[in-house]
Design brief:
The complex is a heterodimer of chains A (382) and B (686). Chain A is α/β, with parallel strands linked by helices and 382 residues long. Chain A folds into two domains: 81 residues, CBS domain Like, CATH 3.90.1280.20; 260 residues, P-loop containing nucleotide triphosphate hydrolases (Rossmann fold, 3-Layer(aba) Sandwich). In chain A, 38% of the residues lie in helices and 19% in strands. With 686 residues, chain B is mainly alpha-helical. Chain B contains 29 helices and four strands. In chain B, 44% of the residues are buried. Classes of the chains: A alpha/beta (382), B mainly alpha (686).
């Protein structure tokens, strides 16, 4: 029994109509890259150590971690440049020590980047004074933490109302708003609990509610589900997708879990030793890993979970007797596999205009699902 | 052979002891031998300090001050003016609180003059009737915690009033109510400063270490010189003594705040001040509260000692009662101190744990119910007091203020009890006492005094070397060298002797009690409660019951020290054993260990770091109690410190003596702490 859930979740009984909504989505997301980016990083460096600034100046931007280590400098982020667009969910993925959390903290300016420029909605936050920074955080940013980071002396309600209260919102108003947030994250009835009385998943719901209380445009999540049990993690991911569906924030999400990244991301940035190895859509990362390191990550990934149906389709042969069913070329294989397998005729693949561009036989899908497993380690693309 | 020695620490210790014994028996005890005693090369130090202080107070940095009496500018030394203004402010605050509680004219005098008050007899501040204060305390307890604390606080104050200790108790209370908040605030600020700046922390750390071991008395002498004598001097000494633990615990608490919580505060848009006040300090609350608690305890511990430099109140009375051997009275006063300590302790804890309810839709009456309740109590209390002035026309108005020692007293009963004890067990007690002193204590004392200085150094530095390498050896050696070069090496040996005997007994007792009680949950909770309660008692209190039994002797002092110092040994043992992971117990059980084996091979090694720190605390507790023992007669460093209190030029002596005591503590601290940390690392508990 295969569990299909999440963003691209569709069951076999779904109608064609729904595949057509699936079909429109990439178009919409491509459109969003036309807008001004919400976050723009230009050659951001973060190097820890007393003489980090001098070392960086001497090195002319070419940072060799080993050399820096000898001078007691630890490289956190090494020349990171990228953009995040409105409504996009960018995931920064990497193992521990890869600098992903450091990068996130540079962008939220919890630590000051050693060099580079970071723009939030066109404003350089590294040159902002403290007052302006606080203003920005109070109006635009929310952040969720791995260890929840709830204030232990405040109740659920007070924790959620906290960002509003430091902003100067009156107590009744902030409490009213906090109550709405509690409903949003389904924690009603636990308003007066203290964090220590809640389970991990519930605590993180509070953390999420708190980070959303001021209605931020930009949402930072630092390994929000890593400290949770697998089942709860799954549940929270679903909840997260639901919230994102309602709220559509611009999101920077840090995780060390590649599956989580694949499941949630619009685009993924894979980091290693402070360097962004590759930044691309999940499918592209799996299909065309840019470096050996990325390839190692992707090789265990079940292709059907990230690949679109167009990658396995055959040229359309009008002579063939095909089924009535039409599938968008952008549908993820996993979500349509059952439909294709149940059809005794080949299924046609259409593009966004409804034009037939190819067809898929059940054998193609079977091949992808079960074939090539034995030599999986040698081939990187299917 | 050498390799075996290197691998096994206990062999090294055996070798060290062998060398020590050889030195002990074969080094000639001649006054001229450097191996026997070092010459007092630091003799000049106390005098220099005296002169420096004299200079600072009288000649340093003269400034022009307007003297309103002679209407002229006068030359006055800056420091004296500063200390005088501080004294003035502190004294005013104490008097102000005191007069709210007891009534008086001094607050009015401050704003007018003595002449004016003498002319206008009506200008007198009335004190609150005791019924109002007791009712107020009960309401406060109710508001902060609930009916339990309300009853306790109310009854405690009723007890104090009924037993005729109202006046001194309120004097003490006014003194604590000023000293404790100042110490808490100061400690909080210094702690925050140390948290913000690494450099400050580095400077402050050794100072705090010394400050926590320097005996109470030593603080009195410089305070006396700089601030004079009186309630304010007592309060200032108390503040200086009570601040270090607050600093330490504030810093500890702030450091323990998870970085993510701090970041969460920042991302919520906190300004620096909001971050500190609404995130950092509340999150570090647990430790800061322990600090507040410690401050209150230290303040009450200082109540007795501060009375030596003129603080009025219970401490003074207790000291007098003890000196007159009125044990029954001393006991009653002691109970009052303990009651005040516990009430303040519980109230402060309850206040910190209080939370607000946002959902209650309250009416005016509900919102202000505590104020209204107090108003009611106030009106009724004043009415009663007024009524009382008609009922008790000739006598004292018992419904207003019960005068000192005019309440009920159980002194006769206690005195009778003591007398009965003495009559019944006189020979038994005396025989035990004599045997203990003659056959146990004196030989040990002689043995300590018979140590050649080189042997002491070898033992201490050798232990330091085995535990912590050359660095520890040098630190220990340096600390001892300071003591050896003063005039008071022999006295220091006597202090060490009393302390060592007490620490050995306390550790054995503490570890035994702790281990037994840690066996199940009920007894664990019980023993921790007992430790909590006993720790609220000011150290001085422990002297009272033992004096009942053994009179003014070394035995009394020793028993008091042992009782007092067993508390940390027990507590740390229990906590150490509790911290042994459950999985290890299970692993042990599955390996088939029996109870004794489990204790010896799993629990004891795992909890050793905790226990070592407990013994370290035991040393600190014991040292402070040894010095307090001077008040009932010992012949060690403490006695000398007490003497330098009454000496005009005692500052230098008092300071150096205090440092000697502190250095004994620090030397032991160095060895035990290094050892504990090593074990912690070895066991992967860091």
């Amino acid at each position: 029994m295969k569990t299909v859930a999440g963003k691209r979740c569709k069951s076999a009984s779904d109608t064609l109509h729904q595949y057509e909504t699936e079909l429109k989505k990439p178009m919409a997301s491509e459109a969003k890259y036309q807008n001004e980016p919400v976050i723009r990083c230009e050659s951001v460096y973060k190097i820890f150590g007393d003489n980090a600034k001098r070392m960086l100046k001497d090195s002319n931007g070419v940072v060799d971690a080993a050399k820096f280590q000898k001078a007691d400098c630890i490289v956190g982020v090494n020349n990171a440049s990228f953009e995040v667009y409105p409504g996009e969910l960018l995931i920064i993925m990497g193992l521990s020590g890869s600098g992903k959390s450091t990068l996130l903290r540079c962008i939220s300016r919890l630590t000051d980047a050693t060099a580079g420029k970071i723009f939030i909605e066109g404003e350089d936050i590294l040159t902002m004074n403290n007052k302006k920074l606080i203003q920005l955080r109070r109006s635009k940013m929310g952040m969720v933490f791995q260890s929840f980071a709830l204030l232990p002396h405040k109740t659920v309600l007070e924790n959620i109302a906290f960002p509003l209260q430091v902003k100067g919102v009156s107590t009744p108003d902030s409490i009213q708003r906090a109550k709405e947030m509690i409903d949003l994250v389904s924690l009603s009835g636990r308003e007066n609990y203290f964090p220590r009385q809640l389970s991990g998943g519930q605590q993180q719901r509070v953390g999420i509610a708190r980070s959303l209380a001021i209605e931020p445009d930009i949402w930072f999540l630092d390994e929000p589900f890593s400290a949770l049990d697998p089942l709860i993690r799954k549940e929270m991911q679903d909840e997260f997708l639901r919230l994102q569906g309602v709220l559509s924030k611009t999101i920077l999400f840090v995780t060390h879990d590649f599956d989580e990244a694949l499941r949630l991301a619009d685009r993924i940035a894979i980091m290693k030793d402070g360097i962004i190895e590759q930044l691309d859509t999940p499918a592209n990362i799996v299909l065309n890993p840019a470096t050996e390191y990325v390839r190692k990550f992707t090789e265990e990934v079940p292709r059907e979970k990230v690949l679109k149906i167009e990658t396995v389709m055959n040229a359309y042969d009008p002579a063939e007797d095909i089924a009535d069913l039409k599938i968008s070329k952008d549908a993820i294989i996993e979500t349509v596999a059952e439909v294709v397998l149940n059809s005794d005729k080949p299924v046609s693949i259409v593009d966004s205009t409804g034009q037939i561009v190819g067809m898929v036989r059940s054998s193609d899908v079977v091949n992808l699902l079960f074939g090539g497993r034995s030599n999986n380690t040698t081939g990187t693309t299917s | 052979m050498m390799e075996a020695l290197k691998a096994r620490k206990y062999l090294q210790f055996l070798l060290l002891i062998a060398v020590f014994l050889l030195m002990y028996f074969f080094i000639p005890r001649s006054e001229s031998s450097l191996l026997w005693r070092l010459p007092p090369l630091l003799n000049w130090l106390p005098l220099t300090i005296n002169n420096a202080v004299e200079f600072l107070m009288n000649d340093w940095w003269p400034i022009e001050v307007w003297d309103p009496d002679i209407e002229e500018f006068e030359q006055k030394p800056l420091l004296r003016e500063i200390t005088r203004s501080i004294s003035g402010v502190v004294l005013f605050m104490i008097e102000f609180v005191r007069e709210i509680l007891l009534g008086g004219v001094k607050t009015i005098v401050t704003f007018t003059s003595w002449d004016w008050v003498t002319e206008n007899q009506w200008a007198k501040w009335p004190g609150l009737p005791w019924t109002v204060v007791a009712g107020g305390a009960a309401i406060l307890g109710y508001a902060l915690s609930g009916i339990g604390l309300a009853v306790f606080a109310g009854l405690a104050l009723v007890y104090i009033a009924v037993f005729g200790q109202w006046e001194p108790s309120m004097q003490t209370l006014s003194f604590v109510l000023i000293a404790a908040p100042i110490a808490i605030l100061l400690g909080l600020l210094l702690g925050l400063w140390a948290f913000k700046s690494k450099r400050v922390e580095k400077i402050m750390d050794p100072l705090l270490n010394v400050a926590q071991i320097v005996p109470h008395f030593s603080y009195l002498i410089p305070v006396m010189v700089f601030f004079g004598i009186g309630d304010h001097a007592g309060a200032i000494a108390t503040i200086i003594f009570a601040t270090p633990p607050m600093v330490r615990l504030t810093l500890l608490g702030l450091k323990k705040v998870p970085p993510e919580v701090q970041e969460a505060g920042l991302m919520s848009g906190c300004t620096n001040w909001q971050l500190l006040r609404r995130v950092m300090i509340p999150t570090a609350r647990r430790d800061i509260l322990i600090g507040v608690n410690q401050v209150i305890m230290q303040c009450l511990a200082m109540v007795v000692i501060a009375s030596l430099i003129g603080a009025k109140g219970l401490g003074n009375d207790l000291l007098i009662a003890l000196n007159r051997l009125r044990i029954g009275l001393a006991l009653e006063i002691g109970i009052c101190i303990v009651l005040i300590a516990i009430v303040l302790d519980r109230l402060s804890l309850a206040w910190a744990n209080k939370q607000t309810d946002y959902f209650a839709d309250e009416s005016f009456k509900q919102k202000h119910k505590y104020s209204l309740m107090f108003l009611l109590v106030f009106v009724v209390g004043v009415a009663l007091a007024f009524l009382g002035s008609f009922i008790f026309k000739k006598e004292f108005n018992y419904l207003y203020l019960i005068p000192h020692n005019k309440g009920i007293t159980t002194e006769a009963f206690w005195q009778a009890g003591v007398d009965w004890l003495w009559d019944t067990f006189f020979y038994t007690l005396k025989a035990f006492n004599e045997w203990f002193i003659v056959d146990v204590l004196i030989p040990i004392k002689e043995a300590f005094l018979g140590m050649p200085v080189i042997a002491t150094f070898t033992l201490a530095m050798g232990a330091g070397f085995i535990v912590g390498g050359i660095r520890s050896a040098l630190i220990v050696g340096g600390l001892l060298l300071f003591i050896a070069l003063t005039d008071w090496w022999d006295r220091a040996l006597i202090t060490t002797y009393l302390m060592s005997v007490a620490v050995v007994i306390s550790s054995i007792l503490g570890i035994t009690i702790g281990t037994l009680c840690a066996q199940n949950k009920t007894t664990t909770r019980f023993i921790l409660t007992v430790c909590d309660t006993l720790q609220t008692f000011p150290s001085f209190i422990y002297l009272i019951p033992v004096m009942m039994l053994f009179g003014v002797t070394d035995t009394s002092v020793l028993i008091a020290i042992v009782v007092f110092a067993t508390i940390p040994a027990t507590r740390y043992t229990v906590e150490g054993l509790r911290s042994v992971p459950e999985a290890l117990h299970d692993a042990g059980s599955m390996s088939g260990v029996n109870r004794l084996q489990r204790w010896l091979s799993i629990e004891l090694p795992m909890s050793f770091p905790h226990i070592a720190l407990g013994i370290n605390q035991t040393v600190v507790f014991a040292l402070s109690m040894v010095i307090i023992g001077a008040l009932i007669g010992t012949d060690d460093l403490g006695q000398l410190i007490l003497k330098s209190l009454s000496d005009k030029a005692g500052v230098g002596n008092g300071l150096i003596l205090g440092l000697c005591v502190a250095f004994i503590g620090l030397a032991i601290d160095q060895i035990l702490r290094t050892w504990a940390n090593q074990r912690k690392q070895a066991l992967g508990m860091d």
